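TOKENISE THE FOLD
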Amino acid sequence: MFTSRIPLLSIIAAAQFAIAPLAIAQTGNIELELNTAADAEQGCRLTYVATNNTSIALEKSSYEVAVYDNDGIVQRLLVLEFGWLPVGKTRVVQFDLPGQSCESISRISVNGPVECASAEGEQTVCRDNQILSSRVRTIQFN
């Protein structure tokens, strides 16, 4: 009788491992990538690529970020408004930081979402499921 339980437990354990990736795939994520940083007339122009890999179409999305200088001192807090993020789509948005050169920025950190709403109301996917990356070698984005 004891030996007949072992295969059953093995099947249950295998089923749990097979189901776990499905749960993760269903929730998806919001990818935010700092794509470029270039000095412009107004200051540093930051280009972000935002991709909604969740199953929730967002009508409004924005994040509060902190901008650090080369000494690691926070220079400003600001809100980046990404706006509409449809499911499975990528949006490119640009933000200018007036009076600041890109060379003077060492890091940008995301404090968290300010707004994350679908047609059904406020959502948690912007907070719980974000992946941050930077293609700009001189600016960390985390």
Observations:
- The two ends are 54 Å apart (CA to CA).
- The longest strand covers residues 107-118.
- The mean pLDDT is 86.
- Helices lie at 2-27, 125-128.
